[in-house]
Write a structure and sequence with these properties.
The chain has a single domain, classed as SspB-like (SH3 type barrels), CATH 2.30.30.220. The strands form two sheets. A five-stranded mixed beta sheet has the order 2-1-6-7-8. The longest helix has 23 residues. By secondary structure, it is α+β, with helices and mostly antiparallel strands.
Length: about 170
């Protein structure tokens, strides 16, 4: 590969991660507007991820969190965000580098981004396109919101960067 090759795929992925950073910074400052809520899937073994040991054992590779009703202290610092979530009625602080995120979705507006993780295909997805390991008390609130909309679930388009990658 020549040294002068422009890596547009990497530039696009960096720009899309900036969308996630800006979104989290805005919500940290102003709260979630309207019906917005986020599913954030991240690699639990990524350098810099700080989660309790029991969660790391339960989700050895990847974990999905829901930011909707019951999240506290969302803060973006440099390239890491911190948030406190409730797991089985126990509040736990998580710190997650933005680079560890593999999927960021806001189902309220049919928006989703999928990032390259360097791992295989997403084999643990269920029918709604989200990993089966989505976990936090706020997930139940998300289900209530879905039921409130007559059982209809809005589906977002996932932007895959594979088409931009050099084979």
């Amino acid at each position: 590969m020549p040294d002068d090759l422009l890596r547009y795929d990497l530039m696009i992925e960096a720009a899309l991660r900036d969308v996630v950073r800006e979104t989290l910074a805005t919500v940290a400052q102003n709260g979630l507007p309207g019906e917005h809520h986020f599913y954030i899937t991240f690699l639990t073994n990524f350098p810099g991820v700080e989660i309790p040991d029991y969660l790391r054992k339960q989700y050895a590779d990847e974990m999905t969190i829901v930011l909707q009703y019951q999240f506290f202290g969302l803060k973006l610092e440099d390239d890491t965000f911190g948030v406190t979530l409730s797991f089985n009625n126990v509040k736990e602080r998580l710190r997650i580098p933005v680079e560890a995120i593999t999927t960021f979705a806001d189902p309220s507006v049919n928006f989703a981004l999928q990032f390259q993780s360097g791992q295989g295909d997403d084999e643990d997805s269920d029918d709604d396109g989200l990993p089966e390991n989505a976990n936090s008390d706020s997930q139940a609130e998300s289900e209530k919101a879905k039921n409130k909309n007559n059982g209809e679930e809005k589906r977002g388009e996932v932007i895959s960067l594979d088409m931009f990658r050099k084979k």
